[in-house]
């Protein structure tokens, strides 16, 4: 599935992670991928961005994330990878990610316990791979809702996976690394984005789900 449509630019300094992302073919996310790639080329980051078949719903498409990350960890063994949602734009080089020694790094939104999975650094370590395998397993257990009744969003199942694997070295990233249009600027005014997320779900979720119009 993940080898069908591939777009690569792998030239970057060795201390920088390779950026990985995926988009659903024949959806508005194809255009988002072009914007992301242009921003990566401007900031000097190599990437591997791949198109995948539309699974028929936004929820199913997002739950491909764990398997996509696992596929890329296997394709680039031992190499640090920076996963970005395809509606992201790299505004400034995320230099905190150079030469990290942790297993996983990500942002919790505005000093809450809500993990954000639009920007996630994976260290390519054994513990990192164990977390991703656990993430896949939890998604299979809870494809729609979690035991507490919340929707089984991929960031929630990733948080569960991190907590269930012992000895994970997790680095909390600054809010600027997952700077979300409207949300971050409202909760954390004055911050300048390093990695900007444009809320493609808000704009495209209804269309992906076969409903009329875009979300407002």
Protein architecture, described:
The protein has helices spanning 29-43, 58-62, 65-75, 126-141, 154-164, 183-187, 200-208; strands at 5-9, 18-24, 47-52, 81-84, 88-90, 104-108, 115-122, 170-172, 179-180, 195-197. Helix 3 (65-75) runs antiparallel to helix 4 and helix 4 (126-141) crosses helix 5 (154-164). The protein has seven helices and ten strands. A hairpin with a 6-residue loop joins strand 6 and strand 7 (115-122). The chain has a single domain (5-208), classed as Spore Coat Polysaccharide Biosynthesis Protein SpsA, Chain A (Alpha-Beta Complex), CATH 3.90.550.10. Mean pLDDT is 88; it is low at 202-216. The relative contact order is 0.16. With 216 residues, the chain is of the alpha/beta class.
Distance between termini?
32 Å
H/E element order: EEHEHHEEEEHHEEHEH
CATH-derived architecture: Alpha-Beta Complex
**Contiguous runs where pLDDT drops below 50 for at least 5 residues:** 202-216
Helical residues, percent:
25-40%
Structural category: alpha/beta
Q: Would you identify the CATH H-level superfamily?
A: Spore Coat Polysaccharide Biosynthesis Protein SpsA, Chain A
How many whole angstroms does the radius of gyration measure?
Answer: 16 Å
CATH class: Alpha Beta
Strand content: 15-25%
Quote the average pLDDT. 88
CATH topology: Spore Coat Polysaccharide Biosynthesis Protein SpsA, Chain A
């Amino acid at each position: 599935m993940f080898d069908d449509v591939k777009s690569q630019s792998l030239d970057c300094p060795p201390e920088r992670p390779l950026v990985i992302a995926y988009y659903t073919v024949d959806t508005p996310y194809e255009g988002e991928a072009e914007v992301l790639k242009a921003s990566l080329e401007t900031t000097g980051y190599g990437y591997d961005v791949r198109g995948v078949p539309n699974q028929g719903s936004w929820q199913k498409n997002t739950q491909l994330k764990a398997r996509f990350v696992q596929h890329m960890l296997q394709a680039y063994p031992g190499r640090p990878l920076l996963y970005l949602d395809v509606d992201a734009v790299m505004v400034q080089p995320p230099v905190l990610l150079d030469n990290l020694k942790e297993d996983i790094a990500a942002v919790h939104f505005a000093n809450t316990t809500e993990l954000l999975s639009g920007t996630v650094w994976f260290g390519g370590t054994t513990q990192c791979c164990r977390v991703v395998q656990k993430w896949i397993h939890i998604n299979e257990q809870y494809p729609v809702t979690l035991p507490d009744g919340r929707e089984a969003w991929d960031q929630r199942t990733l948080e569960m996976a991190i907590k269930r694997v012992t000895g994970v070295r997790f680095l909390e990233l600054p809010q600027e690394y997952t700077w979300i249009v409207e949300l971050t600027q409202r909760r954390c005014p004055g911050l300048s984005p390093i990695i900007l997320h444009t809320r493609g779900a808000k704009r495209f979720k209804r269309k992906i789900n076969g409903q009329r119009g875009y979300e407002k």
